[in-house]
Design the sequence.
């Protein structure tokens, strides 16, 4: 009888037929895969050191490691877990024993102190499943990872803050602080950084067995196997002497910039306390509270990109002051990889290309690029000996990769990162073999005294663009900061060329200059603040018109929804933008990607871009808006809006705008902001006096600031004469009633009486004869329709801050009764709203206790009348309701939680409603054909998946009866078998439509986002789109 | 992502929903404020596009009318005298046109005299479909003739003659402006068939919209 271990575990996990690029069963599979798998180098290292049995990749990223255990060996498994956590590349490790499956997480901190636990009690253990009793759960495991259900159900075991990079970063930062504060004499930060870099580098050499006890003995250091042994010497003098002896020898053997400092001078500044701190750090002790980890960091397995990314963060956040001036925005490793994936699409033959990062920081992009180039080199030179390999890789460093940074420490760290990456591509025996013969590390940093040319310590804006050097790809994450110095090179560079430079944003200047360094078919791909496309101020629009006209933007990846957890230190949401130096032609389109928060990204930082979140935008439309002086809303509309929403927004945009009523001479209404009180630092010349029409003051924070206000809601100013800031609004007409007051947070209310207000409130006022219209305006602004429009068009709301800018409000569609789509009923509807207002005001006067309830009821009734006024169709109502109830409550959350509507599990009634509407919509279009569509939903809560099954039936034909085997798993197993090749690393469960002759399957996660009525309408449209857009066949 | 045999589901959506689009245009025109005999096609189409986007039928169809700005002449930066109505599948992320109308005025008043403009209708309108202006997903196309003096019979006759005269260039077998296979009962909706080298014949649907009368469908041709 076969034992469990002998069974094919792949079949148990439902991946029996999987092959590259979705599954790799060995190092050889990685070598053979064309194109190379993502992060091939790290995968090979994982196969070698973790002795893996398989790796599953989703969305171009390794996601699950598998390892078959040969027998019960707690020590071996503990070692496996140590390597797994240190590598931190993949969130899940599955250990398969004869009887069990143990699922571990790399996003849980290893145990601290105490005896080593057995693997079945390790912190990292998420689940233990019995291979026989839990066979069904094992079968659904991969699906549940793909759908995000596994991360939802086990969210406590997946905390990105506990991954090796964050932990190392925290500890390294604390170490540096302790080093800086450890002595009475302040130590030069440059010296400190160099010391730290060199130590980490040396530790790496030991961890990878590049140097060892023998190496130490050769230079006269006895009884030591590792750096830790030297740092741990009881005699601190001996420790220091041996350490610098080692540094000296490494400098001699390796060359490079890392050991080129005056080590003697540095040694004089390093004290015993510094050595103590570093000793603790390298022994895995948490420097913050002295607790020792179960194991020290293993720099031999921590990916170089991780070390580089950590250093970048470390570099940019070294101190608050430094953070502000540097324009801090750390490039997480996954972002660097994503950016390069986008940059290098359809760009083969990397070895023939030159790459520049003009703000290279610690060199994260250069390192990631180096690894890709090295992979290509290795594949082209499979039989190269170690000398050829060293010279080939050295050539990459010297001729393909270039970095610039104005920060000297950054340049040094970039070189350090590249050295690590370089050595990482060589086997330790190879390195040892050549170590004594040649200086293995090429100088990389350009020095006055010579050196390399790879890293230049300079300001990019002082680099002449006429320089003959051209690059095929310019990548990076340029600094995000408003230049305060008007003489800074970036500001001067833009000014001299007359280029719009809103807010003197440094990143914008990089976006202007970078394309000037490109070859004719080169590309730029940058991480940029979202304002470059989203801001609506006059200079921002000028920038957009000129920049988008001058350079064809090809791809925009909008990461705004992740800002609050992935890029929490960035002040603005991030966009990745790929563009070329040539202007767009009339047919140019932009691929616009808008990934949204899901369990995979919050718990494991795995970014999945669903089909719903990908669209194309015609640049001609954007430019046409800008040319006409209109604000291009498309970036925002297509952020959360679905194709159905685009249609509704397009329709609403055809109506006259609110601004049309007051945006011209002789306008019947006025609009204006409230007054601004002077600040403590404002001198007499910054102040002026104005006369208000009233002593009533309406505060924005008033708790019933909705629909209408009463005079008694106001505070009383001591006098109508007040002092304001000189730049404050002086048009006091807007303080006269009747008017509608609107706060920055988009609360609005009608006030029949005069009332002054502060700057955070805007007023729209008109003659008394327009009172009814102003009441109606308030009802409209309080309706879901206005919120819907604002959410999908405002530059801020749902992207950055919950603040409605003046332009956002005045762009709201608001036809006067003569232009209203409801025609003659318009006046009647306005009157009816006014009756409801008077009725509500009377009720509030009588019963102030239930004011909120009265207003809520009134708004509910008025909303129906507002919908009638705008002739909102029942289908359009669905879109509005889903935006208000689901999307607006889900945008830009800090972390995934069950309270986020899009992430909540859908209910059975919701799925039934979805299916009903989907079928109704399709059958409406099928009317006139001989067919109809009948639908049902199969669900698997354990895997977090649903499959919508649509049967194509002849009219009058009964729906087929369903068998017990008609479940999610059997259906998906069959589809996987048939279509696996077409999927690549894409997941079958991420909204795939499979058309078979009589059945259409839609696979999707069970979370609510995919089961709304809006989703049903859009799914119906996408089914129709697939059919209507099918290519015509050429005649043979 | 779409997998499998999409063609097998084409029969669920009769005539690729083109009848719905034709009805949308016809019914919207009925209540559309009519253009003057001197008005050019660009402003008419602009207004008409807005009206189409407000129509209830449009909300329900799985198509999106593109925001196609009028083309500029690259040499003079002047707006060219042509504009079209393009329909994309609403549920597609790709900006792929699946149906389009070329819009031309007919029987227009120019310098005080009536000009049929049937020749331009054929050579500047219909020919755009034949010469491959649109992508490979299109099986049908449409021509809208704004008949500015309301004399639709005259417009249809002259367009028919011009089509017959350009039969070869238009890649037609018979050169006939025939009755609509989709809306047979309406004499102002016609159809031509063109051999564009595909397995199916390419069909152009012609809608003659009178600028004079909001009417019920005229009699069968």
Sequence:
């Amino acid at each position: 009888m076969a034992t469990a271990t002998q069974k094919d575990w792949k079949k148990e996990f439902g991946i029996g037929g999987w092959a590259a690029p979705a599954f790799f069963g060995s190092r050889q599979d990685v070598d053979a895969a064309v194109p190379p798998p993502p992060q091939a180098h790290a995968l090979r290292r994982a196969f070698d050191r973790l002795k893996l049995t398989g790796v599953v990749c989703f969305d171009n990223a390794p996601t699950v490691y598998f390892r078959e255990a040969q027998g019960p060996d707690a020590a071996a498994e503990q070692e496996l877990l140590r390597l797994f956590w240190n590598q931190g590349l993949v969130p899940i490790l599955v250990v398969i024993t004869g009887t069990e499956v143990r699922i571990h997480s790399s996003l849980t901190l290893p145990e601290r102190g105490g005896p080593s636990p057995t693997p079945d009690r390790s912190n990292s253990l998420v689940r233990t499943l019995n291979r026989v009793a839990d066979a069904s759960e094992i079968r659904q495991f991969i699906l549940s990872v793909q759908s995000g259900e596994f991360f939802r159900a086990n969210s406590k075991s997946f905390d990105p803050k506990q991954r090796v990079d964050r932990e190392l970063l925290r500890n390294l930062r604390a170490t540096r602080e302790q080093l800086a504060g450890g002595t009475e004499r302040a130590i030069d930060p440059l010296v400190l950084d160099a010391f730290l870099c060199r130590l980490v580098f040396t530790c790496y050499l030991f961890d990878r067995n590049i140097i060892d006890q023998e190496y130490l003995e050769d230079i006269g250091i006895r009884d030591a196997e590792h750096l830790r042994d030297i740092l741990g010497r009881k005699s601190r003098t001996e420790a220091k002497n041996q350490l610098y002896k080692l540094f000296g020898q490494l400098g001699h053997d390796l060359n490079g910039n890392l050991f080129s400092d005056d080590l003697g001078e540095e040694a004089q500044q390093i004290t015993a306390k510094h050595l103590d701190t570093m000793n603790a750090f390298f022994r895995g002790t948490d420097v913050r509270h002295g607790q020792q980890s179960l194991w020290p960091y293993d720099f031999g397995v921590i990916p170089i990109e991780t070390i580089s990314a950590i250093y970048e963060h470390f570099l940019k956040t070294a101190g608050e002051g430094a953070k502000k001036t540097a324009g801090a925005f750390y490039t997480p490793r996954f972002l660097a990889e994503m950016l390069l994936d986008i940059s290098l699409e359809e760009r083969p033959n990397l070895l023939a290309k030159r790459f520049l990062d003009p703000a290279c920081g610690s060199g994260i992009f250069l390192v990631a690029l180096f690894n890709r180039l090295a992979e290509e080199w290795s594949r082209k030179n499979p039989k190269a000996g170690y000398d050829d390999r060293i010279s080939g890789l050295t050539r990459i460093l010297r001729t393909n990769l270039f970095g610039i940074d104005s920060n000297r420490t950054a340049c040094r760290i970039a070189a350090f990162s590249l050295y690590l990456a370089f050595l990482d591509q060589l086997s330790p025996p190879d390195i040892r073999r050549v170590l004594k013969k040649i200086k293995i590390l090429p100088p990389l940093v350009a020095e006055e005294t010579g050196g390399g040319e790879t890293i230049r310590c300079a300001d990019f804006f002082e680099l002449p663009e006429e320089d003959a050097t051209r690059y095929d790809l310019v990548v990076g994450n340029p600094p995000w900061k408003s230049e305060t110095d008007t003489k800074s090179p970036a500001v001067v560079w833009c000014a001299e060329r007359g280029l719009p430079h809103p807010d003197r944003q440094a990143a914008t200047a990089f976006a202007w200059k970078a394309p000037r360094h490109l070859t004719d078919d080169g590309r730029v791909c940058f991480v940029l603040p979202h304002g470059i496309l989203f801001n609506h101020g006059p200079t921002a629009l000028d920038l957009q018109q000129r920049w988008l006209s001058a350079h064809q933007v090809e791809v925009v990846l909008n990461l705004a929804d992740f800002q609050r957890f992935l890029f929490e230190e960035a002040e603005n949401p991030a966009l990745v933008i790929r563009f070329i130096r040539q202007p767009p032609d009339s047919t140019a389109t932009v691929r616009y990607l808008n990934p949204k928060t899901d369990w995979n990204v919050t718990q494991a930082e795995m970014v999945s871009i669903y089909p719903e979140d990908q669209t194309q935008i015609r640049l001609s439309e954007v430019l046409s808006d800008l040319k006409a002086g209109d604000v291009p809303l498309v970036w925002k509309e297509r952020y959360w809006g679905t194709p159905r929403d685009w249609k509704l927004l397009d329709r609403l945009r055809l109506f006259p705008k609110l601004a049309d009523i007051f945006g011209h001479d002789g306008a019947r209404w006025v609009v204006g902001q409230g007054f601004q009180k002077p600040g403590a630092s404002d001198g007499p010349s910054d102040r002026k006096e104005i006369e208000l029409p009233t002593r009533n003051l309406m505060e924005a924070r008033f708790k019933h600031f909705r629909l209408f206000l009463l005079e008694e809601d106001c505070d009383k100013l001591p006098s109508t004469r007040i002092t304001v800031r000189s730049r404050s609004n002086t048009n006091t007409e807007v303080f006269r009633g009747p008017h509608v007051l609107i706060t920055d947070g988009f609360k609005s209310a009608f006030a029949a009486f005069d009332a002054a207000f502060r700057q955070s409130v805007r007023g729209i006022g008109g003659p008394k004869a327009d009172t009814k219209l102003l009441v109606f305006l308030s009802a409209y602004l309080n309706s879901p329709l206005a919120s819907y429009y604002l959410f999908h068009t405002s530059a801020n709301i749902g992207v950055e801050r919950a603040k409605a800018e003046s332009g956002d409000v005045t762009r709201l569609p608001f036809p006067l009764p003569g232009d209203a789509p409801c025609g003659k009923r318009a006046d009647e509807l306005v009157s009816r709203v006014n009756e409801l207002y008077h009725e509500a005001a009377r009720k509030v006067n009588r019963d102030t206790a239930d004011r909120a309830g009265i207003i809520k009821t009134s708004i509910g009734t008025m909303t129906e009348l507002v919908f009638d006024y705008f002739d909102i169709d029942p289908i359009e109502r669905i879109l509005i309701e889903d935006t208000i109830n689901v999307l607006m409550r889900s945008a830009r959350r800090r972390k995934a939680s069950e309270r986020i509507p899009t992430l909540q599990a859908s209910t059975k009634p919701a799925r039934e409603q979805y299916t009903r509407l989907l079928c109704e919509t399709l059958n409406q279009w099928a009317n006139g054909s001989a067919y109809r569509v009948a639908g049902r939903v199969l669900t698997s809560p354990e895997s977090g998946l649903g499959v919508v099954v649509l049967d194509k039936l002849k009219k009058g034909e009964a729906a087929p009866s369903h068998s017990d085997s008609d479940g999610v798993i059997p259906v998906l197993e069959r589809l996987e078998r048939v279509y696996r090749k077409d999927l690549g690393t894409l997941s079958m469960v991420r909204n795939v439509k499979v058309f078979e002759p009589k059945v259409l399957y839609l696979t999707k996660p069970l979370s609510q986002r995919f089961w709304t009525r809006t989703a049903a309408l859009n799914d119906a449209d996408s089914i129709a789109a697939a059919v209507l857009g099918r290519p015509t066949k050429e005649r043979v | 992502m779409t997998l499998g045999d999409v063609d097998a589901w084409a029969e669920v959506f009769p005539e690729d929903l083109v009848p719905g689009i034709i009805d949308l245009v016809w019914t919207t025109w009925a209540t559309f404020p009519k253009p003057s005999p001197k008005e050019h096609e660009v402003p008419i189409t602009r207004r008409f596009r807005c009206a189409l986007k407000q129509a209830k039928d449009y909300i329900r169809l799985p198509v999106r009318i593109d925001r196609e700005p009028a083309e500029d002449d690259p040499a003079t930066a002047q707006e060219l005298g042509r504009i079209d109505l393009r329909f994309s599948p609403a549920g597609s992320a790709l900006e792929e046109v699946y149906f389009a109308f070329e819009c031309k005025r007919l029987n227009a008043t120019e310098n005080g005299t009536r000009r049929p403009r049937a020749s331009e209708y054929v050579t500047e309108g219909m020919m755009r479909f034949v010469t491959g202006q649109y992508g490979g997903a299109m099986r049908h196309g449409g021509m809208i003739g704004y008949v500015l003096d309301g004399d639709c019979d005259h417009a249809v006759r002259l367009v028919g003659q011009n089509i017959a005269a350009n039969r070869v260039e238009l890649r037609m077998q018979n050169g006939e402006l025939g009755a609509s296979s989709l809306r047979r009962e309406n004499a102002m909706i016609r159809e031509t068939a063109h051999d564009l080298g595909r397995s199916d014949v390419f069909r152009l649907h012609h809608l003659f919209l009178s600028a004079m009368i909001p009417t019920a469908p005229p009699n069968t041709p």
Observations:
- The CA atoms of residues 38 and 194 of chain B lie 32 Å apart.
